[in-house]
Amino acid sequence: MALADARAICPGLITRPADLVREAAALAGLRRWAGRYSPMVARDGADGLIADITGVPHLFGGEAELRADLHARLARAGLTAESAIAETRSAACALARHGGGILPEGGLAEGIASLPVGALRIDRKVAEGLFRMGLKRVADLIALPRGPLARRFGSDLVLRLDQALGTQPEPVSPEADLPYFGVRMTLPEPIGLTADVMAGLDRLLGRLCAALARHQRGARRLRLELQRVDRETAQIEIGLARPMRDPDRISALFAKGVGEVEAGFGIEMMRLVAHVTEDLPPEQIGENVVPCETDALADLFSTLGNRLGFDRVLRLLPAQSNIPERSFLLAPAAYSVAETPPLHQGPARPIMIFSPEPVRARGGGRPGDPPSAFRWRNMSFTTLRATGPERIAPEWWFDDPAWRTGLRDYWRVETREGLRLWLFHTPQAAAWSAQHWFAQGEFP
Amino acid sequence: MVPEPVPMKLLALAGARVHEAEGSGRRSFALLQAARHDGPLIWALPAHAPHLPMLRGLPEGVGQRLHVIRPSSELDLLWAVEECLRSPGVGLVIAEPEKPLSLIAGRRLQLAAEAGRTTGLMLIREGQGSNAAETRWHCAPLPGADLDSTPHHWSLKKNKKGTEGDWIVNWNGETAAVHLVSAAGERDSVAETSR
C-alpha cells in the first residue's frame, strides 16, 4: 500500500522513515543476546534470526519451554516476536513468518503443507507463476514430480523445497563476532592508592595486550574506567601516536591521569577498553632493523599529544597550491606520514611566513614599484634592492577572504638594515584603499 | 673571489646542551643548525605566534624531518621542550619561549638535554636569556653587497666552555654549508712601499 493511500484511509497516521542502519545494529545486538540459547545464531534476512538449537532444548526443559522462555524475555524487553522450531532451517523460517509454532520430529511435511508457496523464500516471479498455475500451498508442490517442476520454474524452487523437507542440508553459519578489546577486574576490597591502581592497571594491560597480540592489533586509544564504591565512575582516556601493544609504555601514559583521579571511599572495579585499534602485524626485529628512534619519537608524540592535544603536535606536508599560505599543510604528526617535499623551482620562498601585515610605504617611484622606504612592525627600513615582481593570482575556486583584493605582486626586498622581507602589492585593490603594501615573509 | 667554505666545526653547537640565539636573524641561524643536525627536528612555538616555517623555503632535508609543536601556554611549551629534550629520538629542539627563562627552568632544560643526549636551541628576545645557557648567539642579517650574497653577522656572545667569536658568513638558506666572508681590516697608517 502506498503511503498516500494509507493516509487517505487513516488521516491521523503517524509515519517514520525506516532507519536501516540502526535497525541492523539492533538486530546485531539481539543476535548477541540470543547466544544464550545456542552457540550458532545467525542473521536471517533483515528481520530475523536463526539459531541452531540441536542438543540445547533439554537444558531449558524442552522445546516448548525454551520457546516460552524466549517469548517471555522478549516481551519483558518490549519486543513482539514470532518464533518457530522445526527440523530444518527453511521450515522454521517459513513457519516463523506464517504463524509460528513447533513442528514435532517427523511432522515436517505435514507441518509446512498448509503454508503458501511464497514462504519458501523463492522469487516473487516464481511464486506468482506457481499461484497462476493453481499451486498455492506447499502441499501442492510436494506431490508434483520434480523434473517438470525444475524445468518450468528453475532449479532454485526445487532446492528450496528440498531444503525445507530436509533432503538438502542447509547449515546455520553465524558471522564471526568482531574481537572486543576490553578487560575488567572486580576487586574484593576497594583500593585508593595510586600505586595500587597502577598495579591493577598493569594486570589489566597484560591481559589486554595479550588479546591484542592474538588478533594482531595495536591500540590507538584506550579508556580506563574506575568505578568507585559510591557508584561514581571516573574515566581516563589516552591516545597513542601509533598502534601499540606494549604494556609498559602504555602504562607510563596512564600514570598522570591515574594520579589525578579522586578515589573517594575506594575503587572497586576497573575496566580497560581499547576502543580504537589498528592493524599491527608482528615485525621482524633483528640487527638490521633499528626501530629504537621511531619508537622513541612515537612515545614522545604520545606523551605530548595526551597533554597538549594531538592537534598541536604537527608536521609540515607539501600541498599542491601556489598560494603561499596553502602551499603546505599542518597535519597531526600522529596521524600522518612524513613526505619529502618536491624540489622547489622558481622564485625563492621565505623561510618564515606570517599572515599579511600592513607596511606603511613612503616614497617610491611609479605605482607598483616597491617603496624606497617603509615602516613595518614599528621599525623603519630603507630599500636597498628589490627582486620581482612574482605575480600570484588567487584561486578562483576558493573564496578566500584574504585574497579578495585580487592579484598579488610579490617582491623580495632587501633592506639597508639587513632584513630581507617578502612584500607584496595588491594592484587590483580599490583605489581608495590606503593600504597596498603588505609583508608576508622573511628570507634568511 | 670564491669565498672558502667554513669547516663544520665552526658555528657548531655543543651536543647534549641547550643554547640560545637572539636578534632578528635567529630563525635563520636555527634553520642552519637544523640542517646540520641529523634525526627528527622539533620546533616549538606558541599557538598564537603569527609566523610558521614555510615548507618550500626550508633548507634541503629539513622539511620532512621538521615537527611543529604549538602549545597553548608558556608552561606547556616549557614542559613540551623538556620532554622533547629528554627523548633520545630527537636530533634538535628549537623553541621560542615568550618570557625570560628563569634560572630554574634553564637548569631543568640543561638536565633534560643531558639525559636525552639532545641539543636544544632557544630563540629568545634580546636580553631575555637564562644564565644556564651553554652559549648565546646574536644573529643579525646584513645588507648584501650584490644580489646573490645573503650575509649574516653571527656573534658568539657567551660561551661557557670556550672563547667568544664574531663571524660574518654568507648563508643562502639552502644547504648546511656557509661561506665565511673575510672581515675587512682597517689600517691605522699607510703601508710602506718597497723601495
UniProtKB/TrEMBL annotation, chain B:
Protein name: Protein ImuA
Source organism per UniProt: Pontibaca salina
Gene3D superfamilies to which the protein is assigned, alphabetical: P-loop containing nucleotide triphosphate hydrolases (3.40.50.300)
Organism domain of life: Bacteria
InterPro entries recorded: P-loop_NTPase
